[in-house]
Design goal:
single chain, alpha/beta, Rossmann fold, 2 domains, globular, EryCIII-like_C
Length: 404
């Protein structure tokens, strides 16, 4: 291939959209390439590691979504108040990074669409980093007016950013012709075993499974409180519960209900990630509440997980063969939750009805019925077989070859 290539990664200021790409970037560097990032420095810089080159992208500051928003209202807020303004704020930073770094290929998160605009303006090959596979199945097809509205927003952004109207309009006649889907390569951190086949994207979609990179250890985490990882039938079974950092505002009552459900079951031990300090007062002796958890290390030892059906948490749990209780809140989460249930790897419950009794009943089912664990392990096997970060890097190298 000659000299190593230069890859520019464009990400939004969202932890769940940065973490999967850290492993891909590491794989590219390990294969002799240069990698630089564009994103909000205070978010991206602490996640991508010391020594990584990060260009300031800006945007995404001070946007707080009301916790009660659900359905189309939440989607409208996401695009109008966050994603489109984020793209506008990042445009100059991405263009400056392209000029300064001189990339051969760009890797663009599907929610950092400024990268797609700049790549097309610059004539650069680019790949989509589909950190949520829910978009792949065109979930808005059942709501054609909403789908058309989102696509009109994106088309308007293209036109205002200087891309030719005629060419853009032609692309938008395709279901997958907008800025969320590269015509060159779409990397999805899942597999068909969970997210299904997408025949319309057969030429560009590549499932690589979760891209899981090593994360900093937390020396303060009280591992001594947890049940020992052994095969003793008398060991209390370990349950992880969390709703992610972006959903802390909406998840307070849910986390408290999780604590109560686990507390009522002395044969279990629960670890609850509570970054917002939503659970006040004392909890049962078999429940540990902490602001942050070493999630990957914890899932290696867990017997079940309760979560909001966020793509990363779900895939990290299934990667380790851990069955799930999922209570989706908004955005892509209902789609991911339905995928988990359809695959037999967990039980979906309604977030609004998730009291201790409902959570406890679902938790008992996924722990007591071995079919859930078997399905989770089957999906985990498919994830590992897909190749992860190394497979993603190999696919990206194909764009480097095409670029000459």
């Amino acid at each position: 291939m000659g000299r190593g290539g230069r890859f520019l990664v464009v990400v939004p200021p969202l932890v769940g959209h940065v973490n999967p790409v850290v492993g891909v970037a590491g794989a590219l560097v390990g294969r002799g390439h240069e990698v630089a990032w564009v994103g909000r420095g205070d978010v991206v810089g602490r996640l991508v590691g010391v020594g990584a080159r990060v260009f300031e992208g800006g945007g995404g500051v001070g946007v707080v979504r009301p916790g009660g928003l659900r359905g189309p209202g939440a989607l409208k807020f996401l695009w109008e108040a966050f994603l489109v303004p984020l793209a506008e704020a990042m445009m100059a930073g991405v263009a400056g990074a392209v000029e300064a770094f001189g990339p051969d290929v760009m890797l663009v998160d599907q929610q950092a669409v400024a990268g797609a605009v700049v790549a097309m303006r610059s004539g650069l090959p680019w790949a989509t980093s589909a950190t949520t596979a829910a978009e792949l199945g065109n979930p808005l097809a059942a709501m054609p007016k909403v789908d058309a509205w989102v696509r009109e927003l994106l088309l308007d952004l293209e036109v205002r950013s200087g891309l030719p109207t005629t060419a853009a309009s032609a692309r938008y006649q395709s279901t997958y012709g907008d800025l969320r889907f590269s015509p060159h390569l779409v990397l999805a951190y899942s597999t068909a075993a969970l997210s299904g086949d997408v025949p319309a994207l057969s030429e560009t979609l590549r499932y690589v499974g979760p891209s899981i990179a090593a994360r900093p250890t937390d020396p303060t985490f009280p591992w001594d409180r947890l049940p020992l990882p052994n095969d003793d039938d008398d060991r209390r079974r370990l349950v992880f519960a969390g709703v992610g950092t972006a959903n802390a505002d909406a998840g307070a009552a849910f986390l408290a209900a999780c604590a109560d459900a686990i507390g009522d079951r002395p044969h279990l031990f629960g670890v609850i990630a509570d970054p917002g300090g939503a659970i006040g007062g004392t909890t049962a002796d078999n429940v540990l509440v902490v602001p942050h958890v070493p999630q990957l290390d914890l899932l290696r030892r867990a017997d079940a997980a309760i979560c909001h059906a966020g793509q990363n948490t779900v895939c990290e749990a299934l990667y380790h063969g851990v069955p799930l209780v999922v209570a989706p809140i908004r955005d892509d989460q209902p789609v991911v939750a339905q995928q988990v249930a359809a695959a037999g790897a967990g039980i979906r419950i309604r977030f609004a009805h998730a009291n201790p009794a409902v959570i406890g009943k679902a938790l008992d089912q996924v722990l007591d019925d071995p079919a859930y664990g078997a399905a989770a392990r089957r999906i985990g096997d498919s994830f590992r077989a897909a190749g992860g970060a190394q497979a993603a890097a190999e696919h990206l190298e194909s764009l480097l070859v095409a670029a000459g």
